[in-house]
Structure prediction request, 585 residues.
Amino acid sequence: MMKHLEIQEIVKKYNGKPVVNHVTFDMNLGEFVSILGKSGSGKTTILKMIAGTIEPDSGGIYLLGKEISRVPTQKRNIAMVFQEYLLFPHLNVAQNIEFSLKVRGIEKNERTKRMFELLELVQLGGMEKRFPHELSGGQKQRVAVARALISKPDILLLDEPFSSLDFNLRNEMCSFIKSIQRETKTTTIMVTHDREEAMKISDRIVIIDEGNIVQIDTPKGLYNNPTNMFTAEFMGDVNILKREEEFSYMIRPEAMSVSSFRKEGFNKSKVVEKTFLGSSIHYKILWENTFLNISGMNNSEEYSLGQEIYINLPDEKIIKVKHC
Amino acid sequence: MRKFISIIIVMILIVPVLALLLWSFSEMISWPKLLPDEFSLRIWSDLIKSKELLKSIITSILISMGVAIVVLFISMPAAIALSQFEFKGKKIIWFLIFAPLIIPSVSTAIGMHILYLKAGLTDSMLGVVLAHIIPTIPYSVKILSFSLELIGKGMREQSEVLGASMLQTIVYIYLPNLKPAIILSSILVFIVSFSQYLITFLIGGGLIKTLPIMLFQVIQNGNRAEVSSYSLVFIISALIATYFIERILGKNIDGKYMINI
Ligand SMILES: Nc1ncnc2c1ncn2[C@@H]1O[C@H](COP(=O)(O)OP(=O)(O)OP(=O)(O)O)[C@@H](O)[C@H]1O
Ligand SMILES: [Mg+2]
Prediction:
């Protein structure tokens, strides 16, 4: 099957330094992919090259097999919601949402009809006459999404759509975006530096560091089978068991079995730190000469500080990763 | 303290105008006296009847309006290029735009005069309008590009991503958001052009009689009452013209009219 979007070996340099370095990945129709990386890792630059506001120095971008990296932004039908929303301050909600239809010469009746559909979709019915400065952060964000979706874009690009929202609103918007994306079946790329957000919403995640792709996989694949140290540590807590020259061996905190009494195949260790985190409790334990982090659910057996406990490290749960 | 400062500012601005008003109603004032010996309406009644003065007011307003329009159309794309895009030689272009403020206008005017002679543009209103572009463009480009920098590149990128062409972006996004800057720069350009003497004199060859040209002739005559009345006419016509620029632009540069959604 033909890929919906293919990014091949794109490079962008600023002042001779590559900020996007031979990035390659592809997407299926209707897929939701997140680009996850730290601040300054080149995420926005990748999105802007796909949107067309930045031209790559080399490499290709293919939409349904057609090379588009030199096609002007206006002719791509790829919509992007920028990190700063960028609602037009002099236009009201309706005018903002209708903008892309207006500039494409769609007639007024059709525009208004579509605008009201989108307004319903983002649950802002009745707000069409408001101006951007009269909206809350979450409402602005929804207007920006509606404005991007009205032209039925081939690809929707979201640049850190939730970063300026507070925690609760963030979760709500995250599920909301996911449901809209499912409903409209729009192939979507979201940029974020929040791992949990990426895991919650994405079919696959592209991990990027200093302009290089580190690993691409499903959230589960990245968490359970990281191929390198960067991914392993980026995706969650890990315990490093053994370091060798090229590889390290590690295990996730919840992958270990714990028992309060001696058992076949279990090793003795001691609780040295205990942190209550609500649904779970984290312990730091000393096993031989190694400190390990383990976690237990709040409703399972609880251990006390200094208690001797027994742990089991199942072979199949031990992850072998490359240093990088 | 604040009251004191306001009073000083008012004095500095108003007193000279009041003096002009007083002097313009005098029959005769002999230097170094401040107050006229005799009051009369003679100067004003002469002025009102003067066809030459009326013509020069109209000439001046036409020229400066023309300059304001031409400069707006030139400096808009220039300001967009300078504030929104990166390209080689940007610093040189900035320098060239600002050069008229540093280089004495005599030298540019003489240079222009030779050029205009060859192009057959001397002694014409068009020539004067074109010549006024040089001293006025720095203000316009600077004000517009400053505002554009405040708006940022994001708005343009967003507008383009949503499918707008460059022209659509200018009309739908830049113009409405630049409204205050466009009004301010147009007024400034108008006033700077309105007060040009030397360039008008050289390029217009004395045939294009703007208000400043008339004013200088009157100054040479040396009648203080006459000079005062001309100065007042100058100030009043500039004020009225600025008021109309603000009204007209303020009404018409507006998202509502432009986008018509
Ligand atoms: N126009 C530019 N000129 C020079 N350097 C730039 C330019 N734009 C971006 N960079 C640099 O490129 C790198 C990547 O920038 P980018 O905006 O893509 O990062 P990001 O991953 O989106 O970061 P954040 O999470 O903070 O938004 C950064 O180091 C940035 O300083
Ligand atoms: Mg970014």
Notes: The CA atoms of residues 35 and 243 of chain B lie 32 Å apart. Chain B has one domain: 42-257.
